[in-house]
Protein 1
Amino acid sequence: AGGNTPKPLYEAIAKLDLPWDKIEVFWGDERYVSPDHPDSNQKMARDVWLSKVPIPEKNIHPMPTSANNPQLDAKAYERELKEFFGLKEGEFPTFDLIILGMGEDGHTASLFPHTAALQVKDSLVTVGEKNGEPRLTFTAELINHAKCVIFLVAGANKQKALQAVLAETGDSNLYPARLIQPQGELWWLLDKAAAAGIGDLKN
């Protein structure tokens, strides 16, 4: 997860005594910028979390953004996933945990409303788009193979989208987070402001 919402969680994780040599970190989406760019999800995670713990560098798997071609970099990351997990053609990896955020528009990862990335079902990684700017992103199909997915949602500005995503029926093209229905567990971690409108749900 990128943006500001996951920072407190990452900071808390960095204080835990975990078997870091046994933990592998991948990115679910990335802005198509250099790793040292202020908007880089990789930079944020390294600054507040990964640089604070003794995790081997080989266990850190950032999305590539150096080919000057988002499609090529998406394919490169897909190859890395297939090699790491030993996948055969048509298989999807099963992550132990995927952490996601959700935007005011109901997007998650870099799966934005009414974009082509929402329709991709036969790839692990694809190219999302926001305001004409490309981003790399896991596909919804990949995310749904996870053992556990945790959504982090904060802020009163997320109330409308949250209600739409949690409603029994709705439009996943308008609110892409509705696409996330993992085969494993699904958890929602909400702050009070985001959760304030949950009582308005009928189901």
Protein 2
Amino acid sequence: MEKILQLRIIDIIPETTEAYSFVLEDIEGNDIHYKAGQFLTLIFIINNREVRRSYSISSTPGVNEKLQISVKRVHNGEISRHLIDHYSVGDIVEAIAPSGMFVLNEGSYENKDVILLAAGSGITPVISVIKELLYKRSANSVVLMYQNRSVQTTIFRSEIEKIATDFSTKFHWLDFRSSDQEDAFYRRLNNEKLEMLIPGYIKYDPAKTSFFVCGPESFMRMCQFTVTLMGFNSKQIRKEHFVIDKPPAPPLIINPQPAKVTILQQHISFETMYPKTILQSALDQYIALPYSCKGGRCSTCVATCVSGEVIMSMNDVLTEKDMKAGLILTCVGYAVTDIVLEYSTDAAGKGN
């Protein structure tokens, strides 16, 4: 069910003193299919235990020749430090196929406004989306509001500057820096400034405006609260979480019963029983389903529920449209009845 990729590191690019990009290729020369804004889940064996970490893809298919992930060193971050300090060009890493919901709709973005709100390493999936919009989707109104501490800590600064030069009439970059920005207005992006700035960058129908938000949790909450308070629909907002909280408590299910789970493509069936999630039940029976965070925030585990009823205890990535299409997160999903699930390479890449 879960295909493991063997990827060779062919280049390591220092983006700042704390952030590095790893350029990867399949060891057998196969193409790695992904969409702008998605992430790659790496698999490590640390002290005889399997550890999975997802890292956003900063390259863009059709724009960059090779897939590239970007990693920022996290204080007390077990895996980010391990990857940055101990891996070199030529080393092999294991991963599962790229996934994620932080992606664009199909089709052109001409005459549609796209506003991207990023802070710190939250720029990683955002830069991928920006390149997709401008180089491939005919977008003519793309705005990046990017919060950092300083010029030196701004990841992809030179690349953003080049994009701003190449698309000077279509791309606007608002460079917020808390420690070395001379203009006091552009030192800290907050709710008041968002309310002031956003209307000035809406050229077309506000109902068709798309927002992409990624950064620290407090920053993302501020952005989402402000944008929705301004009258935009939550369906217009895509978020990407880097910090995963502890798995949420299971929802209350009255009189739970054992349920049969059938995976269509693989002709696999197994039993699940509350209070175990669908994913945990599968893993306990040595059935390899895709996953990463186990917290309902990354969408690696997304599947389509073809029949039956599933209740989720947490959902921070699926939109109302996604759920109407039957998408569920198995890591926080509980089968109320017998269910049939379908996994699709497209299911993890649908936009809002």
Protein 3
Amino acid sequence: FRSQQEGFSLVETLVAITILLIVVVGPMKIIISASNSTSFSGEQVVAFFLAQEGAEIAQKARDDLVLKKYIPDIAPNVHDPEYIEKPWDDFTDTSGTYRRCFESNGCRMELNSDSNVGGLKSADSCVAGSDNKCLLYIANTPGKRSRYTYDVNSGTNPNTKTPYTRVVSFDATGLPAGQLKVTSKVTWRTGSLKDVQQVEVVTYLFDVYGS
């Protein structure tokens, strides 16, 4: 009596490997896809709050100027040096403090976290030569009022570059007197996606005090 043992044929082996790959690779793709989706959702949330912050800083810029209209005189008929008679005109002056925000490239608006805490940093242009001046960084110096900054360095500490760029734009075209459109746009690239992602917050500011 002779015992015969037969192994798997080549076809059977290939079928088994194919089934194994489907079983293993399928869940892996789902996990990777879910991970990318979660990462993108997190980036969207950050981008939205950064865009919202930009719009709120623009409103603060208006409010800070309005408050200067109500600074008491330092003497009878002698205004304080900080006094502003027509704050709305100053705010919407296309050749004034916020002139860069009226330009096509927009401007950068940021709270001042160093000296003059509570004030605003200069609203500079987003473009200087080939540099992107509106790219955001994470401040690596403890105690900063705002975690995100346009500054490459905080003092002697280099800040961490983020994928986000925030541009604030002003536009009064076609609007009635006493109105201003503010657009705060945040853009970034995520993962392997080629398209630039974008979150935009639009608000309208008014000359609420008739100033």
Protein 4
Amino acid sequence: MLYLIGLGLNEKGFSFETYDILKKCGKIYLEEYTIEFPYKKELLEKAINNSKKEEIAILVYGSPLTATTHISLLLELKKNKVEYQVIHNASIVDAIAETGLQTYKFGKITSMPTWQKGFKPESFIETIRENQSINAHSLILVDIGLEFGRALEQLETAGKDKIMMDKIIVCSRLGTKEGKIFYDDIQNLMKKKVKAPYCIIIPSGLHFMEQEFIENYAS
């Protein structure tokens, strides 16, 4: 039996159900600590084989099924006729409601990779353009390890003359005691000290209630 467990937005976010499950597991893996993500083939094979003999748990931050890699894991378990249970929890997709933006007005979620020499994909800009064409907000999930200032530089460089971004929203460590929300233009946000993990929101066509609420986070 394998348990795929979401830890929520902080280390205290797991439930009594999770606590009871962990007490009976023979092996417990914590993503990005005891195991690397995305998972390597060898790890998947080991997890599948172990879960045929004993109960094991894989702990992931946020919601366990946000990443497509976790869906791939469940497919492998099904193919190998291994029992599993998913324990859901909150993710950044839930937490961004704290900005005051209406969640049903968000379009397709996109991600921003870390640019490297010879590798500077701009597909996230195309997603934002598509969202703006239907007056939808855009949530940008940022690569782990991408420094905040560099992320803003990438956004500004890739989005110049392609998307509207007079003012953007930055969410830092939402769901924790250190959670912060910023609303400003890119140049002013460059001066802020923003701690990881963080995400960026490009608002589009704000409702008057959204506008009134988000102004509370303006510099």
